[in-house]
Specification:
Chain lengths: ~100, ~500
């Protein structure tokens, strides 16, 4: 299947990537070509096939509920683009007009 | 000694042991080679010359004092720049979004290398976030193939492969999600191994596609690759997918290895349309060499090979879209200077920080997981992934390994595939199945094209049989002698090959 420009814009919003009009055109064309190629998978009958998300047998990994060593706050914040004393600083989340 | 850097890591260790050289000389030679060549090759994104030399001197002092030494004591190594290093070097993933990121901790493999006494000289270039097959997607410019500077080194671990091929370091680490160790190993004429999923801890490896990512070694010989794997393999409680299973003696598996009685399967699907005739001839010659050495060869079938590319790019991009959600301009990484509210800040920071291929894959994955398409794409891909795994299970009931080409062609030219993302994806056609099936795969040089470009033979076997792959690689290496040829680039070095003294 192809993917229309509006659909690409929607996916870009979901993926939180700002896109120019030109990028939307390019991605629409490229993703359509790729998805058309991927449609070959539809040929295969997988009715009774269990999906495989992990090829090795996995078991739950437990550990004692004891506090381990963790990064000191200052180190954890050391790469933050913006910070306050002990927290990551972010821009406004809600409009003044909007209600929670 | 003609040139220290012509030695393999194992030969270097022996020379150190005999007192014929010092770690300081080895590391100085490595840094000098990088200085002489890396302006042209661009294998490295960052270097730590002073610290490396200091560590080398410390290793020499420990050796002189008769203190216990690790298995890589004093050996210069390189690490792909998607593995965290807490020593002040950036960890960029070759992405502008992480250009200034300094990891607060060492990746498990980095700790393992340091613990073994290895001296990390620097961090190597890659396709941004390991997404690509040529290293052209690096946010900081491509790496060039030491065998022909007009051609790509393969990707995504192109920097590590080129660094080993140009003998800047004897060994290096890469990561392989769909062929990112084996493809550049093939195109650069070195040995590259992707271990079984879970064999090596991914703690501190920046995630691309978590059900496929695995770390492994580059080296010029199977023996050196075995030595490196020995150091990094093993269980790590910090990576819940790492497997709690004993690590065999890989060097023992390689030394004196033979292929007598080895049952080799040649998948007919790996010799179809798109395979370069010269590559096919060299690969078939290597298979014949194994047969002459006592292996039995039979044709086998991996019928779902034709669906591997689609399956891989759906699974990998879905996982990537989730993994890369963390680059949000909040905790670390680039934040757009101009932005409105929180969502706008996310969107602009990511638009400015990610390159086109990363955006393309995040978009593909987001689409494949989105409501209305999940069943047709992502779930379908997971089902086909099982069919691909079952193909290998059936084949490994009949043979000990499968062999074929690593790449359909030798190294291609810059720009040849960048305009058409799909043609680039097809470079991975022979390598991605191993990641989907979680089995180990290795590429070993098996000869050169008429134009002088290296060609790799890929060998895959059942889970946790890395020793077998390394043994086969040792035999192929002996039979073809490919390891003794060096890139013509090295002949250009002033004063023969610029030995550090």
């Amino acid at each position: 299947m192809g993917i229309e420009r509006d659909e690409v814009a929607k996916v870009a919003r979901l993926a939180r990537i700002a896109m120019t009009d030109r990028e939307l055109d390019t991605f629409s064309e490229q993703l359509s070509r790729i998805l058309n190629y991927f449609d070959k998978l539809a040929e295969l009958d997988t009715t009774d096939v269990e999906p495989l998300s992990h090829a090795l047998p996995v078991a739950n990994v437990f550990r004692d509920d004891a506090p381990g060593k963790s990064l000191p706050v200052d180190v954890a914040l050391s790469n933050a683009p913006e910070r306050t004393e002990a927290a990551f600083k972010v821009p406004r989340v809600l409009d003044e007009a909007s209600s929670a | 000694m003609a040139d220290l850097l012509d030695l393999t890591a194992i030969e270097m260790l022996a020379a150190l042991e005999r007192g014929e050289t010092t770690s300081r000389d080895l590391v100085a030679a490595s840094l000098q080679r990088i200085d002489a060549l890396d302006g042209r090759v661009r294998a490295f994104l960052s270097l730590r010359p002073e610290k490396a030399l200091a560590e080398a001197q410390a290793a020499d002092a420990r050796r002189a004092a008769g203190e216990p030494l690790g298995p890589l004591a004093g050996i210069p190594v390189a690490v792909k720049d998607n593995m965290c290093t807490a020593d002040g070097l950036p960890t960029t993933c070759a992405s502008r979004i992480l250009a200034d990121f300094r990891a607060p901790y060492d990746a498990a493999v980095v700790s393992a290398l340091r613990g073994a006494g290895a001296v990390i000289v620097g961090k190597t270039n890659l396709d941004e976030f390991a997404m690509g097959s040529s290293t052209e997607n690096s946010g900081f410019g491509p790496t060039r193939n030491p065998w022909d500077l007009d051609r790509v080194p393969g990707g995504s671990s192109g920097g590590s492969a080129a660094a080993v091929a140009a003998r800047m370091v004897p060994v290096a680490l890469g990561s392989d999600t769909g062929g990112s160790i084996r493809l550049p190993a093939s195109l650069c004429g070195v040995v590259g191994l992707k271990p079984t999923y879970g064999r090596v801890s991914r703690y501190g490896l920046v995630a691309y596609a978590s059900s496929l990512d695995q770390i492994g070694p580059f080296a010029r010989t199977a023996e050196d690759a075995a030595l490196m794997l020995q150091v990094v393999a093993g269980h790590d409680p910090r990576d819940a997918t790492s497997v709690d299973r004993g690590v065999p003696d890989y060097l023992a598996a390689v030394c004196g290895a033979d292929v007598k009685g080895l049952r080799i399967g040649v998948p007919k699907e790996f010799f179809g349309e798109g395979l370069d005739a010269e590559v096919e001839r060299l690969v078939r010659a290597a298979v014949s060499a194994c047969q002459d050495a006592g292996a039995t060869v039979r044709e086998v079938s991996l019928p779902h090979t034709a669906y591997a590319i689609e399956t891989y790019y759906l699974v990998a991009t879905a996982e990537a879209s989730s993994n890369l959600a963390r680059y949000d301009g909040v905790h670390y990484g680039h934040r757009s200077a101009e932005h409105g509210d929180m969502i706008d800040m996310y969107c602009r920071s990511r638009a400015e920080g990610f390159g086109d291929e990363v955006k393309r894959r995040i978009m593909l994955g987001t689409f494949a997981l989105s409501s209305g398409y999940y069943d047709a794409y992502y779930l379908k891909a997971l089902k086909v992934r099982r069919l691909i795994k079952q193909d290998f299970d059936a084949v490994f009931a009949q043979v000990d390994c499968v062999v074929g080409p690593t790449s359909p062609t030798a190294a291609f030219r810059f720009g040849e595939k960048t305009a058409d993302p799909l043609s680039m994806y097809l470079s991975d056609i022979y390598t991605i199945s191993a990641n989907l099936a979680t089995i180990p795969g290795l590429s070993v040089p098996c000869g050169f094209t008429v134009a002088g470009l290296p060609v790799g033979l890929q060998v895959m076997s059942d889970i946790f049989t890395e020793g077998r792959l390394l043994g086969i690689a040792a035999v192929v290496g002996q039979a073809t002698g490919a390891r003794h040829r060096q890139p013509p680039l090295l002949d250009t070095l002033a004063g023969g090959k610029g030995v550090a003294r």
